[in-house]
Structure formats: C-alpha cells, structure tokens
Design goal:
Blueprint: E1 2-7, E2 10-14, E3 19-23, E4 32-35, E5 38-43, E6 46-49, E7 59-78, E8 83-100, H1 110-116, H2 129-138, H3 149-161
Antiparallel strand pairs: 1-2, 1-5, 3-8, 4-7, 5-6, 7-8
Amino acid sequence: MYAVIETGGKQYRVQEGDRIVVEKLGKEAGETVEFDKVLVHGEGADIKVGTPCIEGMKVFGTVVETGKGQKVIIYKYKSKKDYRKKQGHRQPYTMVEITGLTGEKPAVKKEETVKNEAPVVPSFKSMKKDELIAFAKDNNIEIAEKATKPVIIEVIEAAIKN
C-alpha cells in the first residue's frame, strides 16, 4: 500500500516505514505528525483518488530529526558597476518516518516500542565536520580528524553497521 501526500507545497509518494525529508514542520524529534492532505491511497486495482483530497484519510509519521540542508551560495554581480553581493542559505527541513497509512492513528504499545526501538542515527550529510568528529568521539569511533568530510562519514557509517 502506498499514498501520495501533500505538505509544504510538494507531493510525496510514501509507504509505511519510508523516511522522507519535508519542509520544516516546527516539531521536535520523537513527536508524531499527521498529514491529512492525502491525494491517492491504495495499490493496484484497489486505488482511491481524491478530488483533490480523500475525506477522512490520514497518514501518520514520527519526526526523526530536524536540521538544515546543504549551503547554497547566491552571488549577484553587475559588471562595470562595482556591485558584488555574496549570500548563503541553508534550507531548514524535517525528516519524518511514516508509521501508518490508515484513517485511524496506529496503536503502538510502549513495551513493544522499547524492545524494538533501534538507536536513532542522525543524517550525517546534514552535519558539519566538527559535529561529525564530536559524534565519533561520543560513540568511541576512531577517525582521523584531518580527513575529509565524506571519508569521516564513511568511517562512521561502517562502524555503526558493525
């Protein structure tokens, strides 16, 4: 089963267990999110299409992390006029894990959550190099501090998998 939801002016095709990166929702990690703009739901011949949304259908998720994306450099320049302007921007985002595609909120028992809950691993690509080094030190992972950011990410991910 899958659904197409709309949030932040964009549409996302989601299934249960998917992690999606959406525009900032203003929620903290661990909070639940409810998407009520469901455009399509189902699979194969058993598909429902809304006009524009399906009434009473909701998609539920849990916020995994909030952060900022990669920096985008905006550079304005006018020749012969001595005008140069450099500006940077990092777009805020919220990473959400989809927990349910039904019209009702999924019931989760706290006992089961504690047993099956894996440690939350942050998105390393959104972290700065010094944050990666601090994360590695906190988790007793040996890295070369002078290594490049992609190398540090690769070493941390390999250490977490083992």
